[in-house]
Amino acid sequence: QVQLVESGGGLVQPGGSLRLSCxxxxxxxxxxxxxxxxxxxxxxxxLVAVIISGGGTNYAxxxxxxxxxxxxxxxxxxxxxxxSLKPEDTAVYYCNRDPSSLNWGQGTQxxxxx
Length: 114
What we know:
Elements: E1 3-7, E2 10-12, E3 18-25, E4 34-39, E5 46-51, E6 57-59, E7 67-72, E8 77-82, E9 91-97, E10 108-112
Parallel strand pairs: 2-10
Antiparallel strand pairs: 1-3, 3-8, 4-5, 4-9, 5-6, 7-8, 9-10
């Protein structure tokens, strides 16, 4: 019954921007901290951004200043605005609670390449 559906990924040149969206259902979205994770080929999944239920945010050092996480509790949606993208940002991006406690969705592929 719990679903996490990510969208918004794609192919972008270095320096470009993408906005990812995650629509959650099946739980009371507003009371949980939410996060974006990413997993690059051959690497483990890593936490990149967190937004707490009250709206505060935290970011991995690698994305700080470039990514912005936000949430719309009325729409059960969390977003990740990604600016100044770098090739090392290439990964499949996933959303989940923080700490991750739900089954992972399919994620959305972000590819940063010239």
